[in-house]
Amino acid sequence: HDPDIPDVTLITPTAPMSPAVHGGRAKCLQRLVRLGMPVPTTLALSFDAVLRCAKGQLPDMGALLAPFGDAPLLSVRPSSQDPDWGGPGAILNIGMTDAVHRSLSMRVGEAAATALYLRFVQSYAVHVARLDPDAFDFPNLTGAHALHAALDMYEQEAEQRFPQDVQVQLAEVLRSMARAWDGTSARLLREAKGAPRDAGLGLVVQELALGVGMGESGSGVIQFVDAQTGQPRVVGRYLSQSQGRDALNDKTGAIYLTQDGRGPALEDLCPDIFAQLLEYGWTARSRLREEMQIEFTLESGVLHILDAVRVQRSSRAQVQIAVALATDGIIPREEAVMRVPPNALSEMLHRQIDPAEPRDVIVRGIAASPGAATGRIVLTASEAQASAARGEACVLVRRETTPEDIRGMHAAQAVLTMRGGITSHAAVIGRGLGLPCVVGASDLTIDRKRGVIVAPGGRRFAVGDTITVDGTTGAVLAGAPAMLEAVLDDAFQTLLAWADDFRDIGVRANADTPADAQTASNFAAEGIGLCRTEHMFFQGDRLGVMREMIFAETADDRRAVLDRLLPMQRADFADLFAIMDGRPVCIRLFDMPLHEFLPYDRAGQRDLAEQLAMPVTDVTERVQALSEYNPMLGMRGVRQGIAIPEIYEMQARAIFEAVADVVARGLAVQPEIMIPLISAAREVEIIKARVDAVALAVQRETGTAFAFKLGVMVETPRAALRAEDLVKHAAFLSFGTNDLTQMTYGLSRDDAGRFMSTYVQQGVYAEDPFHTLDLEGVGELLAIGAARGRAGRPDVVVSICGEHGGTRAAIGFCRTQGFDYVSCSPFRVPLARLSAAQLAL
Ligand code: PEP
Ligand code: MG
Question: Which segments constitute the PEP-utilising enzyme C-terminal domain (predicted)?
Answer without folding.
Answer: 491-839
